[in-house]
Amino acid sequence: MTERDDIDILKDFGNPSLSNQAFKEILKKYQVRLYWHIRKIVIDHDDTDDILQNTFIKIWKGLPSFQGDSKLYTWLYRIATNESLTFLKQKKRRFFSPIDEVNQEISSKLESDPYFDGDKAQLKLQQAILTLPDKQRLVFNMRYFDEINYDEMSSILGTSAGALKASYHHAVKKIEEFLKQD
Amino acid sequence: MSHEQENKNPFNKENPFKIPDNYFENLSDKLLDRISESDRIKEKPIQIINWKKQIAMAAAVVGIIFMSYSGYKMFYKNDPANQQFSQIIDTTDAEYSFVDEDYIVEALTTTQPETDVEGDDIINFLVDENVDENLIADAY
Fold first, then answer.
1. I need a labelling partner for A24 at 20 to 30 A (CA). Which of A127, B15, B102, B121 fits?
2. For A19-55, what is each residue's pLDDT tens digit?
């Protein structure tokens, strides 16, 4: 089944008798991309599941007031990003620990995670990425793995494209340094 | 591979993470259930108990009771007639509280006088009281 254009889906969502069906279409169209975007930030599958559901609940509630001043996908991505960063902040607050300690905790659990299927090299790469500050980690994931261009990233994260480029290059340098260590 | 291409992909891009089987297939049902549940909760009217109103009504009832009692105390007991009566009750209660009610009842309900009154007693009474016996003779 070919995916419909976002504009057509949103038109249907505006019709009360079609809103459920339209929402299902949005869900099917974007759930995978949003899932992996969140997963790369929080790493754990169960946490990702919670955040993804919360994201879509927010999407459901927010869609009636979505003005269309940005692309639908940009808006969805922004919600997912904010939910993920909020989750990490809350985790830090809950355990009274700085964010890098939270990331260290995630990194140490990775090897025994039943939903992590990577080899030693991939494990080390993920651990390297987890040493980055959260926003820089976001930038790196979005640019490197999702191949999102800087302009689109800028509208999602609310940061200038130039700053994002600089952040990405620093991230690459840090990861390379980490991987050189034993 | 050129230097630029190497720099573009310096790290392994393969995804090392797994997901549970049928995760995405089940996700939409789980989500739609959650959404209908939250919509159902929103529609249910929340019965708001107006505590202020309840408290005000209770206070009004207590006030009415208090004022009635105060009025009774003020007007009924201050009436002289009622005051004597109430004083009698108070006095009686205080001074005769030791009296056994059963004794009084027995005394009042006894049919036989304790002593018989004889004829000489009557005459002696009449003499003591200075009653003219001729008046009695005329009467009978």
1. B15
2. 889 999 999 999 999 999 999 999 999 999 999 999 9
